[in-house]
Specification:
446 residues; single chain; globular; 14 helices; 3-stranded antiparallel β-sheet; Beta-lactamase; alpha+beta
Length: 446
Amino acid sequence: MEDATVQGHAAPEFAAVEREFRTHFAERGEVGAALAVQVRGLPVVDLWGGLADPETGRPWEHDTVQVVWSATKGLVATCLAMLADRGRLDYASPVCRYWPEFAAAGKQRVTVGELLSHQAGLPFLDEPIPLSTVAVPDALSDLLAAQRPHWEPGTAHGYHAVTWGFYAAELLRRIDGRTVGAFLNDEVAGPLGVRAYIGTPREVAATVATLVPAPPAVPAMGEAGTTTAGTGARPGGSPDPAGSGGTQGGTGGRGGVADRGAATPSGTPASDTSDTSDTSASGAPAWDPDSDMMRAMLTLPELALPGADHDPDVLALEIPSGCGVTNARALARVYAALAAGGTLDGVRLMAPDSVKAATTTAVEGQDRILGELTAFAQGFMKPSTSFFQVSGNPEAFGHPGSGGTLAFADPACGLSFAYVTNGQTLSHTDWRALSLVDAVYRVLAA
């Protein structure tokens, strides 16, 4: 696509980041995308370009929004951290303190922290969840509460790709009375002046960017030994189920770690400690529909149907693990507030200590669902393993989204970063996003 499709601005010192973004369109087949970067609360990059809908030719505009899949989890985690900041939620307390029915099936000792850090043993339900049940919160709550854990809570962790959002949202509803979508609008998006929805209004849903699936058998650029942007960010790896945040095998998009870690004195290059497996904890091949991994990813099977990502009826539902609708500018602004200690431009989300409590690593190690090393805080991913190696700074936190979206904060250097794309890929922590991350850190390290 022509370089001229890119609009927006970048501060002069971030010109190399703008060039990298433009290269995605000129040379790498980018469809439509947006990039937003803030440093110490100041917007230094705000770019967008390409097509929001290739079929109709609708251009990507300043305020275009799209489904960001699992990057939605970072918004939900922010909402829960705000409840903790207000003294209404304690990560160390049992979930059943706030949601008595959750104690069923041996879950009476599961803590809020275990639930939010993917340690509760609830990555899928015994039966898939139909969308019709999602539309009835009390019915969904009953299903969630009745589920028995698939491992002893607190003894292991495994990515709750879909169920995490439903459990987290019901916990918030039990405490606050509002749905997570209403809380996000009232307490985060509204005060910060950004567009971010969980349960998207129909007039907004009609304008979302159309996601373009990755070709199933096209070799990814870089597999023949080339790298992107000179950073070592190599695409490739296993297919990424919708809304999962992804899994990756073989070579992966983790290039430029030394550059990312060099941004501050505290940053140290992270080593590649990945232990990618082709099997899940159940012993079945990971891509077997009966494997734990695929059961987790397809907990809500109707979401995987063609067109679901821009169906107004689907987007009107609150699906908090993966159907958030927003843009890069909004994600970067939310993470900018967190990177600044919880307050941005006079809008206070939470105190610095509450940011730290929500974003400190709670668990790290072999993931029973994804089959490789992952690390989680209270809903946020952490960069201490190769799965989410966006920074060498241990204070960093955020969440990727299936197909390419990436959003995170690095408080050590006051950075917030968000990239969204409708040209979906088959790798997690997308190589295009990582090439942009590397370009940003090189500027900060200069």
